[in-house]
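Here's what a typical entry looks like (Disease resistance R13L4/SHOC-2-like LRR domain-containing protein):
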Amino acid sequence: LPALELLDLCGCSALEELPADVGQLHSLKSLILNGCASLRCLPRALAPLPALELFDLRRCRALQKLPADIGQLNSLKCLELSLCDHLRCLPESVAQLASLQELWLTTSKAR
């Protein structure tokens, strides 16, 4: 799926992890995982998503951490982490997101 720009898995409550090959979707601009309440972890292979602008992880209540290399998502403009109840801290690499315009942490305990 080399031309795929939008992957919306909103509400897939049984999804526990994303396959590592999601990092091969080089044209992907929007990755929407809103409401994937069982999602615990994300693959380390997200960094090769050069076009990703929107990463929506709202209500991923079981998510415990973000990949350490998330700062390599150079095109990322919006990172939505609201209501991620088990996410306690953000990787230091978040500070490297030069294109980031919106960071949503509403009711999140992440620091």
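The CA atoms of residues 43 and 66 lie 9 Å apart.

More examples are in the samples folder.
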